[in-house]
Amino acid sequence: MASPTSDTPAPNPTPARWQWASIAVLALSTFVVVTSEMLPIGVLTPMADGLHINPGMAGFSLSITGLVTAVTAPVVPRLLGAVDRRLVLAVAMLVLALGNVLTATANGYGLLTVSRIILGIGMGTVWGLASAVALRLVAPRHATLAVSLTVGGVAAASVVGVPLGTLIGNSHGWRAAFVMLTAAALILTAALLLALPRLPRPPVPADTPDRTAREPLLRNRSVTVGLVLVALLVTAHFAAYTYIRPVLEELTGATPGTIALLLLLYGVFGLIGNFAAGALAARRARLTVTGLTVGIGASILLLVLGGTNTGVTGVSVALWGLTYGGLSVAGQLWMTQSAPHRVEHVTGLFVGVFTAAIALGAFLGGTLVEAFGITPLLWSATGLAAAALAVGVFGRGPDHRSPDPADRRRPTTGIGRSDRPGAPQDQRPERSCPDSRTGPVTKRLTR
User: Fold this and answer.
1) Bridge partners for 432 per DSSP
2) What's the mean per-residue pLDDT of the chain?
3) What digits encode the pLDDT tens for the residues 322-367?
4) Which distant-in-sequence residues (6+ apart) come within 8 Å of 150 by Cβ?
5) How many of the other CB atoms lie within 10 Å of CB of 259?
6) Cα gap 264→281, rounded to integer Å
7) What is the C-alpha separation between 223 and 256, in angstroms, rounded?
8) Each residue of 416-433: pLDDT tens digit?
9) Where are the alpha helices (DSSP H) in 157-255?
10) Would strands 441-444 and 430-433 be described as parallel, antiparallel, or unpaired?
11) Which whole-number Å values give the CA distances from 257 to 157, 232, 443, in the listed order?
12) pLDDT greater than 80 at residue 31
């Protein structure tokens, strides 16, 4: 029997069908939480009319959710201790359901604000933990695919979730769309409890030095560089993309039908980018993220210079979708490769910065559009993307020779361990360290 200090991962007692069923449930969960956040975009006008507020106030509800998510995602992993992550995710989906049902029954801006705060708590918890949990559910060789599928729910929310919610809202009223999301969240609460194994606190890899395990993440230069790059790039993206419809109307002269097709093109290429970037970033995270940065900046610049031509606009939108679609998963892998010993914490920090940059980008874009117009907005977004590229090129990234984070050596209680009946129980990792007086002694890591 393997000792607690063995470097060989224990066999995974969870059958393969349960592994991928669990990943599917996680992907559906991220799909529902991001659809819940973004749905007001698709039903903005009838929602504002129903609440007797102006569209600007209704749109600000997205910023409320984003800011709450930005705080929740990095804080929750630090508060969990040994609590079963499966239960945490299930409770978070219940919180999300509560936020959606309160949105559906809101009769004014006050209750809408409360509902979006509650929704942000649920969203930050689910999105912040989902990728870290996915890494623990599959064999190491499938880790990148598991993260790509889980994060793919975020991309699918834009392509499928918001249009479907808008269709329901147009047919049965905007409140019905949020009722449907409430039902979906309740179903996924049960699915998470059934599909996921028990998931206590993840162990520290056996070869992690004590000082590294306790080091604040922001002292890790690779983590800090990645966060700054993502903050600049996501701010640039959302400053421009939030106003993509007026951009296409003003520069290209696109009709509503053409705009719908261009946004569908953006979404389809976004899904392709998600999986392509995941495969590349597993081995070359820094190169992949900097390449995506070049693509996002180039697509916005192309729109500025050639946006009056429909063909050029189509190429720009497709490139934009392809490169931004891969950013979430590639950035996630940059983080986990930079701090493989603290995957939950670094994932939460990444999601927090990402969602804060979404809110900042939307605010910055609105300010620039109101003050200067569409073209200066696009030039400003291009400048932010160039700054992000400089950070990626000259800053420190994860070691490009590092294996996939799930391939790192781990104790016998590593990825894939389950607390289903009959499965070995999770333990805190133990490791040996020399003692000059008594020889090797066993030391229990604490966090």
Assistant:
1) 442
2) 80
3) 999 889 889 888 988 888 888 778 888 888 898 889 888 878 887 8
4) 23, 26, 27, 30, 130, 131, 134
5) 17
6) 25
7) 42
8) 444 443 343 343 333 333
9) 162-172, 174-195, 210-214, 221-241, 244-247
10) antiparallel
11) 21, 32, 65
12) yes
Judged by DSSP in three states, 60 sits in: helix
pTM above 0.70, yes or no: yes
For residue range 305-318, what is the model confidence (pLDDT) as tens digits?
988 888 999 999 99
Strand, helix or coil for residue 12: coil
Q: Distance (Å, rounded) from C-alpha 187 to C-alpha 33? A: 13
- Asked if residue 261 has pLDDT above 90, the reply is no
Handedness of CA 411, 416, 422, 427 (dihedral sign): positive
180 vs 293: CA distance, rounded Å: 36
How would you class 418 by CB atoms within 10 Å of its CB: exposed for 0-12, middle for 13-18, buried for 19 or more? buried
Q: What is the largest CA-CA distance in the chain?
A: 80
The one-letter code for the residue type at 405 is: P
Task: Concatenate the DSSP letters of all residues of 242-303 into one string.
Answer: TTHHHHIIIII---HHHHHHHHHHHHHHHHHHHHHHHHHHTT-HHHHHHHHHHHHHHHHHHH
Residue 303 CA to residue 324 CA, distance in Å, equals 15
DSSP readout, 293-310? HHHHHHHHHHHHHHTTSH
Distances (CA, A) of 281 to 143, 319, 402: 12, 18, 11
d(C-alpha 238, C-alpha 233), whole Å: 9
Q: Which whole-number Å values give the CA distances from 60 to 40, 69, 106, 187, 196, in the listed order?
A: 10, 14, 15, 29, 35
